[in-house]
Amino acid sequence: MSLRVLVPIKRVVDYAVKIRVANGRVDTANLKHSMNPFDEIALEEAVRMKEKKAAKEVIAFSVGPTKSQDVLRTALAMGADTAVHVEVAEGQEVQPLQVAKLIKAFAEKEKPELVILGKQAIDDDSSQTGQMLAGLLGWPQATFASKIEVKDGSKITVTREVDGGLETISAPLPAVVTADLRLNEPRFATLPNIMKARKKPLTKLSPKDLGVDVTPTIETVKVEEPPKRVGGAKVESVDELVAKLKAAGVV
Predict the structure, then answer these.
(1) How far out from the chain centre does Cα 198 lie?
(2) CA dist., res. 36 & res. 15, Å (int)
């Protein structure tokens, strides 16, 4: 059995851009945005499954403002068959639990056999959406995947990266998998595929269409940059070092 694979992706500030903090918030104005790198890895894995005939359809799904359509078009250019955009207002924060509820509602409607998403987004580093989604759906989950194999279209074997090395687990489908860095190296979207992506279907929905309230449940009180590092100093002797440590109250 060939699978239908759902790949949630997120538009984030590009990983190569230096973040600015202003007035207790991250200032994203006029910064380059791109697809979350871990979601890009998840998408690449889904496209490879389709190329191996293990999957028959790849659906890209994103929650965000109108500009999120850019990363959905990139996903289509990389090989996704269709794209779904759940549009929210510019500047509106949609937190992991709300995103998980939106994906759940869509998954219950479309019934994919597999959901693959990045293990975390590089803007908030929450690493929560995949686990919450599996819990809401009541599906088995395999997190931090570095290798995924589909067995007979009815189960998956996943190699996970854990603190002590690698762990291999098996789970029946449908299931949720979160992708780690070493799962694969994503391809670049070619110009012909970018042009073709403009003609592929992109469905627009709202949170209301999926019956989900996206009002934030957690408030970010303040964001601060880490303190600037102070330059070191050389000492001429051990006695001088001990004296400086005592003066600093370290010893």
Answers:
(1) 23
(2) 8
Q: Give the tens place of pLDDT for each residue, 78-107.
A: 999 999 999 998 878 889 999 999 999 999
| pTM score of the predicted model | 0.84
Q: How do beta strands 155-162 and 141-151 pair? A: antiparallel
What Cα–Cα distance (Å) separates residue 230 from each residue in 2, 68, 82, 233?
Answer: 57, 40, 51, 10
Nearest to 139 by CA among 161, 170, 114: 114
Report the SS3 class of residue 46: helix
Is the bond preceding 216 in cis, omega lying within 30 degrees of 0? no
Going by the DSSP 8-state scheme, the letter that residue 229 receives in this structure is P
The amino acid at 46: A
Q: What is the pLDDT of residues 118-150, one digit of tens each?
A: 999 988 888 899 999 999 999 999 999 999 999
Residue that is written with structure tokens 């997120």 in the block: 10
Q: How far apart are CA 59 and CA 237, in angstroms?
A: 65
Instruction: Locate 15 and state its tokens.
Output: 């990983």
Q: At what angle do helices 96-110 and 129-137 cross, to 10 degrees?
A: 40
Residue with tokens 């697809």: 35
